[in-house]
Amino acid sequence: IKKKFENDVSDSNDPYNDHHNHNDVSQNNKQSKTLRSQLFSDWIESNLITNENIDKSNIIIYDIAGGNGDLSYQLCIRGYSVILIDVRNDLNEIGLSIKNKLNNYQNQQNYLRNHENNNN
Questions:
Q1: Is 69 within 8 Å of 84 (Cβ atoms)?
Q2: Which of 8, 28, 34, 52 is the most exposed place for a label (fewest CB within 10 A)?
Q3: How far apart (Å, rounded) are the C-alpha atoms in residues 94 and 18?
């Protein structure tokens, strides 16, 4: 079993598989994790949220073992209410990081709306 696992992992062409290339610099790994969280949040939205008429902010999603909050962030910017649950000691720092990311995202959206309104 161990040998099969090693072969499967080493032969994998899956760009989202963390095991397939340990030589990635940390920035590429971070981008890969961000892309995975975007893809997974897209999947959640298209496969699990079936009622398109419901207000997204009324849906509470529990991100169990949410780690550094990449998925929580992606779901928040889509308008869902998310509760991140993890056993990590630095959850307050993670919460502040997500809050800062959301504030930056909202500021960017406001800027784009204002810029678009000024051009019309």
A1: yes
A2: 52
A3: 22
* Residue 116: per-residue pLDDT: 83
Contact 20, 32 (CB under 8 A): no
Mean pLDDT computed over every residue of the chain: 76
What is the DSSP secondary-structure string of 63-81? EET-TTSHHHHHHHHTT-E
pLDDT 10s digits, 40-64:
999 998 888 877 788 888 889 999 9
User: How big is the chain, counted in residues?
Assistant: 120
The whole-model pTM stands at 0.58
DSSP state of 85: E
Quote the CA–CA distance of 71 and 106 in Å, as a whole number: 17
Residue recorded with tokens 């892309």: 35
Location of structure tokens 């099969």: 4
60-64 and 81-85 beta bridge pairing:
parallel
φ, ψ at 101 (rounded to 5°): -60, -45
